[in-house]
Amino acid sequence: MAYVLLDSNNVVIQKQPYPQDGFIEVPDSVVAGQIKQGSVFIDPPPSPVISPPAPAIISMTDTVTGEIVSFAVTNGQFIKQQGV
User: Fold this and answer.
1) Which is more confident, 72 or 82?
2) Is 83's pLDDT higher than 70?
3) d(Cα 8, Cα 67) in Å, to the nearest integer?
4) Residue 43 and residue 29: Cα distance in Å, rounded?
5) Which of 1, 15, 21, 52 has its CA 20 to 30 A from that of 61?
6) Neighbours of 12 (CB within 10 A)
């Protein structure tokens, strides 16, 4: 058996092999991060996948040559686009 400490949302925040005030006895299979629901411990739901933002395309006219120049802006970096 093991002993765990739960936060206010019933999430396991610490696990140890000996009893201590505030800890509850649980099966050895319980791990930090699991959620206590009733008398069982479940894994938390998966985090949503966050996709990086699509690059912005900026086009401007070169005032010297009259050429239209395009840049992709990603993570604050400008990358000149060829043939756009």
Assistant:
1) 72
2) no
3) 62
4) 12
5) 52
6) 21
Q: Give the span between the Cα atoms of 54 and 68, in whole angstroms.
A: 22
Could you count the other beta carbons within 10 Å of the beta carbon of residue 4? 21
Tokens 């206010």, residue located? 8
Q: Is the pTM of this model over 0.70?
A: no
DSSP strands (E only) in 1-84: 2-6, 12-16, 24-26, 35-37, 40-42, 56-61, 68-74, 77-81
Collapse the DSSP code of 55 into the 3-class scheme (helix H, G, I; strand E, B; otherwise coil) and give the result: coil
Cβ neighbour number for residue 34 with a 10 Å cutoff: 20
Note the helical H segments in 3-70: none
Convert the pLDDT of each residue in 37-59 to its tens digit: 999 999 999 988 888 777 788 88
Longest dimension (CA), the chain: 78
